Amino acid sequence: MLAVDGVSRAFGGVFAVHKVNLTVPKGELRAVIGPNGAGKSTLFALIGGQLAPHAGSVHLDDVRIDRLAAHRRARLGVGVVFQAARIFPGMTALDNVMVGAHATTRAGFVTGALRLPAHFREERLIRSRALECLERVGIADWADRPAEALPLGQQRALQLARALCGQPRLLLLDEPASGLRAGERERLAALIGELRAEGLTMLLVEHDVGFVMRLADRVTVLDLGRVIAEGTAAEVRADPRVIAAYLGGAAAPTSASAPGGSAGPEGAGG
Ligand code: ADP
Ligand code: MG
Q1: Distance between Cα 174 and ligand 2 center (Å)
Q2: Average pLDDT over residues 250-267
Q3: Contacts of 33 (CB under 8 A, 6+ apart)
Q4: How far apart are the CA of 136 and the centre of ligand 2, in A?
Q5: Number of domains making up the chain
Q6: Most ligand 1 atoms within 8 A of CB, residue of 42, 207, 220 to mutate
Q7: Does residue 250 form part of some domain?
């Protein structure tokens, strides 16, 4: 379903992502792990369309998408939950989720501008779909509250609801569990497991190695912008390069490697 071929992106002459190859079959939940600054979020931006690659290509099924704008990729089925919370303040939680559907509906603009009956039917449909998505992530009670009034955990759930409302075929989750409390993490893990059982293809970046290893079919390890290992959780855990770069010698520490969460990539050194 997803084929990333030789993709590179540099900032100021330094490669954040360097000649990365990544192939993800339909229905797989692939984890992408690596130390802070490894290039995980940049790789997601290159797939989601927030950044254009300097080299290489990205295909979704047979469609080449790396030159397309983010909203066109969204329409083709690429959903993204960003690392940093992105909510639209001044809008309710429900309206925030509806944005996810509007981003991916085709006829919306013209019928909406002309206020045709089809527009109102579509609005109703989107509204009920958005409510379902809020229920699914467990925050339906917050539907009519201003989005900025939601606590952090609920804001993260809101972003997931928004992405789901766009009915993605490929969902990119960038540290969706960061800032969540233990119970919230468990619920998120259960939901991701459900989505996987439904056949949704996902890429998951997460620092909590236990969380990742439990959920993922396969794991790709990035370091300094390059893929240094790929395999099952057990294979990756045993790989000496991975242990040196990331796991720090111990068997899968749980949260030792994520001091800053979404803090600036430069901060943690590397
Ligand atoms: P990760 O998500 O694995 O922590 P990032 O993809 O955020 O890593 O960052 C990879 C590298 O690219 C880092 O060295 C970071 O400083 C750099 N980088 C990322 N985005 C930008 C940007 N917009 N401008 C300049 N440098 C960036
Ligand atoms: Mg990141």
Answers
A1: 7
A2: 40
A3: 40, 205, 206, 207, 209, 212, 219, 220, 221, 222, 236, 246
A4: 25
A5: 2
A6: 42
A7: yes
pLDDT digits (tens, 9 = 90+) for 91-134: 999 999 998 887 776 555 555 566 666 777 888 889 999 999 99
To test the pocket of ligand 1, the residue of 7, 11, 266 to mutate (highest count of ligand atoms within 8 Å of its CB) is 11
64 and 174 inside one domain: yes
Q: Is 263 helix (H, G, I), strand (E, B) or coil?
A: coil
Q: Give the CA distances from residue 145 to residues 50, 92, 149, 158, 261, in Å, rounded to whole numbers and listed in that order.
A: 29, 5, 7, 12, 26
Both tokens of residue 89? Answer: 């303040």
Task: Show the domain range for 140.
Answer: 89-165
Query: Rounded distance, CA 33 to CA 203, Å?
Result: 10
47-90: pLDDT as tens digits:
999 999 999 999 999 999 999 999 999 999 999 999 987 889 89
Structure tokens given for 148? 């900025």
Residues 6+ apart with CB under 8 A from 70: 48, 49, 50
Residue 155 dihedral angles phi and psi, to the nearest 5°: -65, -35
Asked if residue 173 and residue 71 are part of one domain, the reply reads yes
Sheet architecture: strand order including 14-24: 14-24, 2-11, 55-60, 63-64
* Structural tokens at position 241: 């390069």
DSSP-assigned beta bridge partners for residue 24: 2
